[in-house]
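Example 3.
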Amino acid sequence: MTSSSKNTWTLAPHQHQGPHQETGEDAHILSPEKHNGNFKAEGILTFMGAPYCAPDRHEIRKMGAKICFLGAPWDQGTIVRTGTSSGPHGIREASSQYFSYLFEYDVDLLTFFKVVDCGDIPIVPGNNELSQQYMCDYVTECLEGGAKVILVGGDHSVPIPGARGLSQYMSRNKPDASMGYLHVDCHLDAAVDWAGIEITNASGATETLKMPNVSSKNMAHMGSRNGLNPKDWMDFWVDNDMPIIPMSEVIERGIETCGRKILDRAWNGTEAVYLSWDTDSMDCSIMPGTSCPESYGLNARESIAFARLVGEYGVDVFELAELAPIFDVSDISAKLACNLVYQYLGSRAATLRSQNQAP
Amino acid sequence: MNASAEHNHLFSPLEGEDTDHSSHISFMGAPFVPVDSDDLSSNKAPYVFIGAPFDEGNVGKPGCEDGAREFRVASLGIPSYWFEFNVDLKGEVVDAGDVSMPRVNPDVARERIYNAVRKVLAAGKIPIICGGDRSISIPAAKALSDHLGVGKKMGYMHLGAHLDMADRWAGETHLSTNAMARITELRNLDMANCAHIGARNAFNSKDQVELAKNRHMRFYPMMEVLDRGIDDVMDEAVSRVWDGTDAQYLSVNLNILDSSAAPGVTFTESGGLNSRELIRVAKKISDRGHISVIDVTELCPMTDVAGSTSRTAVTIVQQIMAGIQKVHGKTLDESLRRSGWRYDD
């Protein structure tokens, strides 16, 4: 690559290079002519085969990236079993089985959003505060670079630094604006502390409400069910007058109605939204590869429908947490997680296109 | 009417009687009748099971060459009596064994699959071909087309997550991803008699969608199935394939199912049919009362969970067989009772 093209977004699918080059800029969304006919190869692994970009606001801006993928290989915040630190790898590997083209929307996600993979956030073993500070800083850098963020955990303490990253970005750039926060999860995650610790995956909602530009009137929870929801978690949502849409209500009223309700609330008067989506909101039959699998959850078509709905509204940070490939079965969980990000981006692209907007 | 010994397998075993275990592994414990045998045409069974342990047409993950074997094993755990239809599938099928596969020689392998299917069709039987990867449909569908000959029309229905409409794939023309591209070129398959159901997600490259549209291949993507419901889509699709055709080919790629319902598939895809919807698919097909070829592909035992995908695969085939049998009136005598059964009065 010449130095003059170094700072522009250039798709260079490594498996299309070499002596048998694929030709044409659309080669990656077409059936292969020469290379990579074999989808057993994951090659040099990035999400969606996107080019790597340093997680630096200036680099991101120079490349013109509008979607940054960030991995958070982190499971030091969990109160249940570990394994989610391999989540970013799992979703990248699953993406190697896919084209970046979605026929349902007739869009190439890669070139439409100029997707980049900013790699994994560094984690410091034994230093949870510093690790979370890095997560916060990385999210902020991507936002400052003019991109939206796909943040893949990692245990579900990821929204604590993740939402703080968006909050700090908003405070600096739009000090008068507020932001919304959505928590889609089997669990209410509203412990004020867990055995004295405030930054575990039991406290995503509680920590977020502390942020200066977050108001309870723009927060909501969807998908709650089953027996890992202590009373104080429930009390936190109720006492702060924030709606919980339990799974039973989703089944009764449908994902479309319930999804719109929380998205409308998050976007009501705000200028940014953070979506924190725990994979255990999905049923354990389609999502066995998570650290706390739970029955009676969203099935694949419901979760895909919600991802598409989120694409209609858009979010600033789309976070997917708790993917744990070590417990997966036939990679179905990782592939669904990957598909949810793709469906979100596809729907987002279709929405923007219909409004004649650029990403 | 109390059952004679020949009907004992329909019932719970009698005291002192062993469960009907087959001593050899075959589809439903059926007798082995090779495709070259004279017994193939003289046998009364309308169906002939063929294994096609072929995995060299696959562009994704490996493992489906073991599909036919596990399909047979799963079938041994399911009795031949289907209570919803009051039919007995015993004697309805013979097992022709696996097509002998030369390794690292896909051209010869495809030719052998083609020959096996031709022979079964020539014997007047319905082949049930279990893959193997989805590319086995190419020689099998060509066999049906050639068997019919000029002037006869065939219908083709595919259930699966991918369009498989790549004209060329890295220069190759007979891989799984090429399957629909080749099959839609068969001379006696009119596009009015072709239906593809279940396409979804990001393994459908742009050229494939364009070719499907250029050739006017009607595909019902999963989004349409969700909007309309499976019954409505199947009513329309079955009409396309069955109305006015002389023969019908049903091709089932098990990734038509949601990955939660079928983890034991080489290329799993989320957002597909659940198993109860697949049962509806079987009903809509069997209601027509006849079929010419069935293939089941991409069963991947090494990623299966507790054999559940194999069992579902067998179930769907047996549902179709049982439904067709009922349409033909080959049901059991309603008064048939277990040997030794006594009414209270």
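Chain B touches chain A through 46 residues (CB under 8 Å). Strands of chain B lie at 47-52, 81-82, 87-88, 93-98, 126-131, 154-159, 189-197, 219-220, 247-253, 293-297.
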